[in-house]
Design brief:
The longest helix has 25 residues, at about 1-25. The chain has about 200 residues and is mostly beta strands. It contains one helix and twelve strands. The strands form two sheets. The protein has an eight-stranded antiparallel β-barrel. It has a four-stranded antiparallel β-sheet with strand order 4-5-8-9, with no helix packed on it. It is elongated. It has a single domain, classed as Porin (Beta Barrel).
Length: about 200
């Protein structure tokens, strides 16, 4: 009994430092700074065939939970180009439409090289601003469409290459707002490689 009691006391004292050492040895060491901000421009392709190609911009601050998994916020605005179609048997023109987007983001970067492909998802609010439908013959406003706000989601994929970021995102925007594909090109501020620690 005494031997068992002594072992019960000594075993944690002996194993404790080894477990701690093992945990320290396997602890993930960061290669990149966690905070970064992406700023860039989009080329947008609306799913509604009555509208034409447009463009926009985005700002996206992000934080790396580790070097692979990143979370953040996407703030963007896209202008969908005007188009022509039949409205109530009248040839009409739809004015260009502004679609704002504020979403939470998450993405997984597959490698730790200078070029890092990623797969991600955004989810948040989409806002379509007012626009008009105009008679193409006499320029008279046929109808004016009001603001629409929806919850939407957007899967995306792309690559980070050094300080440059490229991505393709498909936006599911809900009823009353056209879905669209955006091709983004941006530059990243922060998030660079962590240099070796200096010893003094």
């Amino acid at each position: 009994m005494r031997i068992g009691f002594k072992l019960a006391i000594l075993l944690p004292l002996i194993m404790g430092p080894m477990v701690v050492k093992s945990q320290v040895g396997t602890e993930q060491i960061r290669m990149f700074h966690p905070f970064k901000v992406d700023v860039g421009v989009n080329l947008t392709f609306p799913a509604n065939s009555n509208l034409s190609i447009g463009g926009g911009f985005f700002v996206e601050p992000r934080y790396g939970i580790n070097d692979h998994m990143h979370i953040g916020m996407h703030m963007g605005s896209n202008i969908i180009g005007e188009g022509e179609y039949l409205f109530q048997n009248t040839e009409a023109i739809i004015n260009a439409q502004a679609i704002g987007n504020l979403s939470l983001t998450g993405e997984y970067q597959f490698t730790l090289e200078n070029v890092r492909p990623f797969l991600g998802m955004t989810a948040g609010m989409y806002r379509l601003s007012d626009f008009e439908i105009i008679d193409s013959y006499n320029g008279v406003v046929i109808t004016k469409q009001g603001t629409v706000v929806n919850f939407g989601m957007a899967p995306r994929l792309g690559i980070v290459a050094g300080k440059f970021r490229m991505n393709a995102t498909y936006h599911f925007t809900g009823t009353g707002i056209t879905d669209f594909l955006s091709l983004g090109l941006g530059i990243q501020f922060g998030g660079g490689k962590i240099g070796p620690k200096r010893s003094y």
